[in-house]
């Protein structure tokens, strides 16, 4: 589709930035993607292009994981304020405390930002391992913040948590499996400290979306009703029923449908009531994670979206707990949520440049010579005849004759140039068919996907496996779009390949104007001008789960903050892995490698293959490369 006057609104609609951007991203009148940063003096806009030039001035090459501090601050504020508003509105008689699950983004600067911006709300941390608990112990400043310990816990884990209790933090040990209680009781007796015990429920409520396995009878963690009764009896016998203060459940991450959340809370409340009746001293109701991100901007119950707002999420939870417990005259518990994705996903944008484009455009075709084989001549005739009336037939003929050309080549009956001529005619027919598909009232699956099959491949300077692993592992859709030239109509249709030369190292699911698409509209590259894209909403899980496929390491990272006067500050930068770094991760010693290479070069000098000067040049290059960035450097 070619439009005469391409407008900024057209770009907004095409890429859906107003639908998934949650107000944090926009497009300027000059066609640049903007960060719309919330500050104490309102929203301040900064173009991503300006940030990219600031990164270049500081020597940070693409790809860069950009973190926008204002957005973390705003997400923590929104979550806490929305719960507080719901509590005030409904007259709920207790408070809300958030804890950030460290596993969602363990990078020290991120956890530090969360602790800093969360301090005024006593926002705490959730730890799922000893390493994460050490981070929590060292990072949290506000003693009113909670620490929730989930996951398998050994004696050392419990000992560490007890130190948090001794320091004055409320540190809960959530029992995920029956065997944990004995260790908790033994270690707390040793230290002479009363533990704060939580119990993780296995709910029968099933949720929609990718992480439905976190709930239901077969979920890996949590106690079923029989195990719960046994636990109560053990606590009773040990005289520690008063230590059971927290009820926890986690229905799964990215829950798209609010009804599932309400149902889960209601079911958990039934357990809360029964446990109180059994004499437990419950005071905290921890509903885990699950608050979803609208990645595809459809505001629906589809897996990559959510059909509710943060406000609705908070109101529904407060209301469901209040209604359930009021009916039994049970005091309202302190509400805890472990929102990870919703807290950090919006803050990070992966910025990368495009290195090259491979297109499937045919060369101009001309009538074949008389001496050409029949299939080539038939391909030409098909091309001449192709019209919108019998499109599928022309499409099928194109493949039929192309295959015949390939057979002839295989048997040595035509040469390379003839094969190329046949394949170019085949592609010319497909292009013509694709251009006519829009005229049909009824198409077929083959014709429907023809435009996708002919899409360009844009080669991006990044690794899917390192920076967007969920796009590969679970077909997660992230919004991707150019960050400039948005006042120009993007005339190409493309998929994006990464640097890993792996057929899975690609992006071919995008946010389209009317839902998910297999291709993304992009601009043709201009000579001597970089073309930059951003992958948005990538702050949750991606950096943590990324791996070293093809030895592409951590990208450069930069954190920026926009102040209340709209000034941009580069507050933190971290150089990505060098080649020496990634080699050492897979147990090479860069010094040994350099030594081995020196010996090979010396051998070559001895054998007269290279001069001593050339040897020095080679060694210099080798050592310089060890210090270089693992990604494509201009
Ligand atoms: C126990 C627990 N709490 C919290 C979370 C974070 O969930 P989300 O990122 O959906 O907020 C998870 C992640 O799945 C989890 O397993």
Walk me through what this model shows.
There is one protein chain. This protein has 634 residues and is α/β, with parallel strands linked by helices. Among the domains are: 94-339, Alpha-Beta Barrel (TIM Barrel), CATH 3.20.20.10; 374-451, Methane Monooxygenase Hydroxylase, Chain G, domain 1 (Up-down Bundle), CATH 1.20.58.930; 580-627. It is built from 23 helices and 23 strands. The strands form 4 sheets. Strands 4, 13, 14, 15, 16, 17, 20, 21, 22 and 23 form a 10-stranded mixed β-sheet that branches. Strands 5-6-7-8-9-10-11-12 form an 8-stranded parallel β-barrel, surrounded by 5 helices. The protein has a 3-stranded antiparallel β-sheet with strand order 1-2-3. Helix 10 links the parallel strand 10 and strand 11. Helix 10 (258-277) runs parallel beside helix 11 (310-326). It is globular. The two termini are 34 Å apart. The structure holds pyridoxal-5'-phosphate (PLP). Pyridoxal-5'-phosphate binds next to helix 12.
List strands and helices in order, with pairings.
Blueprint: H1 8-15, H2 17-20, E1 25-27, E2 33-39, E3 42-47, H3 48-57, E4 64-68, H4 69-90, E5 96-101, H5 108-118, E6 124-127, H6 130-139, E7 146-149, H7 155-167, E8 170-175, H8 180-191, E9 196-200, H9 225-237, E10 244-248, H10 258-277, E11 284-286, H11 310-326, E12 334-337, H12 341-344, E13 348-358, H13 374-385, H14 391-410, H15 416-436, H16 445-448, H17 450-453, E14 456-460, H18 464-467, H19 469-473, E15 480-482, E16 492-497, E17 506-507, E18 510-512, E19 515-517, E20 520-522, E21 532-535, H20 542-545, E22 556-562, E23 568-574, H21 579-585, H22 590-606, H23 612-627
Parallel strand pairs: 4-22, 5-6, 5-12, 6-7, 7-8, 8-9, 9-10, 10-11, 11-12, 14-16
Antiparallel strand pairs: 1-2, 2-3, 4-13, 13-14, 13-21, 15-21, 16-17, 16-20, 18-19, 22-23
Helix pairs in contact: 4-5, 4-11, 6-7, 7-8, 10-11, 13-14, 13-15, 14-15, 22-23
Bound molecules: pyridoxal-5'-phosphate.
Residues 101, 104, 126, 150, 250, 253-254, 288-291, 338-342, 540 line the site of pyridoxal-5'-phosphate.
């Amino acid at each position: 589709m070619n439009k005469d006057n391409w407008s900024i609104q057209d770009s907004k609609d095409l890429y859906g930035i107003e639908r998934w951007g949650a107000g944090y991203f926009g497009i300027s009148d000059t066609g640049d993607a903007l960060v719309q940063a919330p500050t104490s003096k309102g929203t301040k806009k900064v173009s991503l292009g300006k940030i990219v030039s600031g990164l270049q001035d500081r020597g940070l090459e693409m790809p860069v994981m950009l973190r926008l501090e204002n957005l973390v601050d705003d997400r923590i504020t929104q979550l806490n304020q929305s719960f507080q508003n719901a509590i005030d509105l409904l007259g709920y008689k207790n408070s809300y405390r958030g804890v950030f699950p460290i596993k969602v983004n363990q990078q020290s600067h991120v956890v530090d930002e969360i602790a800093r911006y969360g301090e005024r709300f006593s926002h705490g941390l959730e730890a799922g391992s000893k390493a994460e608990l050490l981070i929590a112990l060292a990072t949290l400043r506000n003693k009113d913040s909670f620490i929730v310990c989930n996951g398998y816990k050994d004696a050392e884990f419990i000992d560490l948590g007890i130190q948090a209790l001794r320091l004055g933090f409320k540190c809960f040990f959530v029992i995920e499996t029956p065997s944990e209680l004995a260790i908790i009781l033994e270690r707390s007796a040793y230290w002479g400290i009363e533990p704060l015990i939580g119990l993780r429920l296995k709910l029968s409520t099933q949720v929609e979306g990718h992480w439905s396995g976190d709930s239901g009878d077969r979920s890996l963690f949590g106690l079923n009703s029989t195990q719960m009764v046994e636990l109560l009896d053990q606590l009773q016998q040990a005289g520690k029923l008063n230590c059971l203060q927290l009820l926890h459940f986690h229905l799964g991450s990215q829950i798209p449908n609010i009804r599932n959340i309400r149902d889960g809370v209601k079911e958990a409340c039934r357990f809360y009531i029964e446990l109180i009746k059994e004499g437990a001293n419950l005071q905290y109701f921890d509903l885990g994670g699950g608050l979803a991100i609208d990645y595809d901007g459809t505001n629906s119950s589809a897996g990559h979206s959510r059909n509710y707002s943060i406000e609705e999420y908070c109101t529904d939870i407060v209301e469901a707990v209040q209604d359930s417990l009021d009916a039994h005259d049970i005091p309202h518990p302190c509400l805890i949520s472990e929102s990870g994705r919703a807290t950090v996903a919006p803050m990070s944008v992966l910025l990368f440049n495009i290195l090259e484009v491979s297109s499937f455009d045919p060369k101009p075709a001309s009538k074949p010579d008389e001496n050409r084989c029949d299939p080539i001549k038939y391909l030409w005739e098909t091309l001449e005849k192709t019209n919108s009336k019998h499109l599928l037939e022309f499409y099928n003929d194109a493949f039929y004759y192309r295959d015949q050309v390939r057979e002839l080549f295989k048997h040595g009956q035509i040469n390379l140039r003839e094969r190329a001529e046949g394949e170019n005619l085949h592609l010319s027919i497909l292009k013509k068919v694709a251009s006519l598909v829009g005229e049909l009232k009824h198409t077929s699956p083959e014709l429907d996907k023809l435009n996708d099959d002919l899409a360009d491949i844009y080669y991006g300077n990044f690794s899917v496996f390192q920076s967007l692993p969920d796009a590969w592992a679970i077909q997660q859709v992230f919004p991707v779009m150019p960050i400039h030239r948005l006042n120009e109509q993007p005339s190409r249709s493309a998929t994006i390949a990464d640097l890993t030369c792996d057929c899975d190292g690609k992006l071919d699911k995008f946010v389209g104007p009317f839902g998910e698409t297999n291709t993304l509209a992009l601009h043709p590259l201009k000579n001597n001008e970089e073309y930059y894209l951003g992958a948005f909403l990538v702050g949750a899980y991606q950096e943590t789960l990324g791996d070293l496929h093809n030895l592409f390491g951590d990208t450069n990272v930069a954190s920026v903050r926009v102040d209340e006067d709209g000034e941009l500050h580069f507050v933190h930068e971290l150089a990505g892995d060098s080649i020496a770094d990634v080699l050492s991760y897979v147990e090479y010693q860069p010094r040994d490698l350099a030594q081995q290479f020196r010996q090979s070069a010396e051998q070559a000098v001895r054998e007269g293959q290279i001069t001593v000067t050339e040897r020095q040049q080679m060694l210099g290059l080798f050592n310089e490369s060890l210090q270089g960035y693992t990604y494509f450097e201009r």
